[in-house]
Design goal:
single chain, alpha/beta, Rossmann fold, Dihydrodipicolinate Reductase, domain 2, 2 domains, 9-stranded mixed beta sheet, 16 helices, binds NADPH dihydro-nicotinamide-adenine-dinucleotide phosphate, binds 6-O-phosphono-beta-D-glucopyranose
């Protein structure tokens, strides 16, 4: 298990403490930190929402959430009791200033503590809540504000939210969550690239043919079908999670792990992304929607049926993009994500160029399969490198592809990978902003995506159907075929 850094005493306020995110992710993550002994004795967790609940009623809800979302074997009775003892609840409508005053009084009981105010609410409330927090003085040097995605639905709306927040909080106090950055395996990507000398010299157009980034989900929109209908895969996944994976794959080595060094390099990648052309809109940005089908042997309805009405919202996106800089000139990056694909699997695949000439006659260059580095993000986190080897035994020089495989779970004998939120929630307390998005970074990602969204709206573009349980619309495979490539076959 990782080393435990006990953090300074804190008060964690979760606005939206009765919501799905708090129940499913935030409280279970904090519980696991309790289990690992990372929470200081004095730490308090305060839920805020409109529902009129007493402290005891709220604690009952939190306990129910933990019993649902934490594995039973981890629910040690003493730890659970200690953890639940940290909770309090303060009912407040986001627009009622008196509620903020009461919150301030409660937090002022311990003025020296780090205070985190986590907004797990609809993003339309981020601006107003920030203003009220500032009005009652909850924007001091010890106060930190955490913002959940989605931060806006396009560039102008994101700028509006950021501007409203900036009226109340200094950028150094703002922590914008992209939970992919907290994933163990995503950080391993940095360890792999910048902790080994091997990769730097081959990490460029000289040797790399193309890169594929896939985040496949087998689940559908499910309970969040209504939220999703206003979002779609491009806003929900590509603008944030896939864009971040692209940045970490393509960025230059930062001078250090310091927050701004890392974020400066990611920003450069986002700003180097080639704008989409009219031809790209036709051929290289694929928008799909799942229809009825079967996942893991189980029949499932199509997205429109789940929603209960016809919809043009996409549940799948595949696209080709380029990072127009010296390192990556001419190297395509293919990104794809979708719901109701056959399996849950996220990976980054770096395809290297073919050898220029084969010395193994009569083996031709065609028989020498190009090297390929697969960074598996989830599940079964690890790395594998496909190499050509000699087929063992006599009978001439035959070549055969083989893999060097590293499974993090086996190598490090891990029982479980900590959830991304476990790291991120306490990084806020520690004041470590490396894994959070800076305002300019977020806006650069929206600047890249907004023309696509505008094009879809202006042209009333529909979606390509794909059967639930398939790998997405034919057009996505066709995009690769046109380029003489195919999606990473191990996924099939
Ligand atoms: P929910 O609708 O489940 O929860 C919203 C929370 O906000 C509830 O606690 C609600 O409580 C509270 N709330 C709403 N309006 C007000 C108000 N005017 N004043 C005070 N509290 C209010 O949403 P989620 O938990 O799913 O999502 C929260 C945020 O996190 C959203 O921005 C979402 O997009 C984002 N997110 C969610 C993920 C998830 O898996 N759920 C994943 C990634 C991001 P009450 O009604 O009692 O006021
Ligand atoms: C969230 C999206 O940000 O990420 C969800 O809103 C998606 O739609 C989820 O299911 C995927 O996260 P993970 O950690 O399960 O890959």
């Amino acid at each position: 298990m990782s080393k435990i850094i006990v953090v300074d005493p804190f008060d964690y306020v979760v606005v939206g403490g009765t919501g799905d995110l708090a129940r499913r992710k935030l409280f279970p993550a904090l519980f696991h930190r309790e289990l690992d002994g990372q929470l200081p004795d004095q730490a308090r967790i305060i839920g805020v929402a409109r529902s009129e609940l007493s402290d005891a009623e709220f604690v009952t809800q939190v306990e129910a959430a933990l019993r649902e979302f934490v594995p039973e074997k981890d629910l040690d009775a003493d730890t659970l009791k200690r953890f639940l003892g940290r909770f309090a609840y303060m009912p407040n409508n986001a627009f009622t200033v008196d509620g903020y005053r009461a919150l301030k009084d409660k937090l002022d009981e311990h003025p020296d503590r780090v205070r985190v105010i986590y907004l797990a609410t609809p993003p339309s409330l981020f601006g107003p809540i920030s203003a009220f927090l500032a009005e009652v003085g909850l924007n001091g040097p010890k106060d930190r504000l955490v913002l959940e995605k989605p931060l806006g639905h396009d560039l102008p709306s994101s700028q509006e939210i950021n501007a409203a927040v900036a009226e109340a909080f200094d950028e150094s106090q703002v922590y914008r969550i992209d939970h992919y950055l907290g994933k163990e395996s995503v950080q391993n990507l940095m360890a792999l690239r910048f902790g080994n000398v091997l990769f730097e010299s081959i990490w460029s157009k000289a040797v790399v043919d193309h890169v594929q980034i896939t985040v496949a989900e087998d689940i559908g929109a499910g309970d969040r079908a209504t939220y999703y209908s206003k979002s779609g895969a491009l806003r929900d996944m590509v603008q944030n999670h896939l864009a971040q994976l692209l940045c970490l794959t393509a960025m230059e080595a930062p001078a250090s792990m310091d927050a701004d060094s890392v974020r400066d390099e990611k920003l450069k990648v986002l700003r180097a992304l080639r704008p989409f052309s009219a031809e790209d809109f036709q051929l290289n940005v694929i928008r799909g929607q799942y229809q009825a089908g079967s996942v893991d042997g189980e029949a499932v309805p199509g997205y429109a049926d789940e929603l209960g009405e016809p919809t043009r919202t996409e549940t799948y996106v595949a696209l080709k993009t380029f990072v127009d800089n010296w390192r990556w000139a001419g190297v395509p990056f293919y990104l794809r994500t979708g719901k109701r694909l056959p399996i849950r699997s996220s990976e980054i695949v770096v395809h290297f160029k073919a050898i220029p000439h084969s010395i193994f006659r009569p083996v031709t260059t065609d028989e020498v399969v190009p090297n390929r580095l697969v960074i598996r993000l989830q599940p079964d986190e690890g790395v594998s490198l496909r190499l050509m080897t000699k087929d063992p035994g006599p009978g001439g020089m035959r070549l055969r592809a083989a893999s060097l495989d590293l499974s993090f779970k086996d190598e490090f004998e891990l029982e479980r990978f900590p959830d991304a939120y476990e790291r991120l929630l306490l990084d806020v307390v520690r004041g470590n902003r490396t894994l959070f998005m800076r305002r300019d970074e977020l806006e650069a990602a929206w600047a890249w995506m907004t023309p696509v969204l505008d094009h879809w709206t202006e042209t009333e573009k529909g979606t390509e159907p794909y059967a639930a349980g398939s790998w997405g619309p034919d057009a996505a495979a066709e995009m690769m075929r046109r380029d003489g490539r195919s999606w990473h076959e191990d996924m099939k």
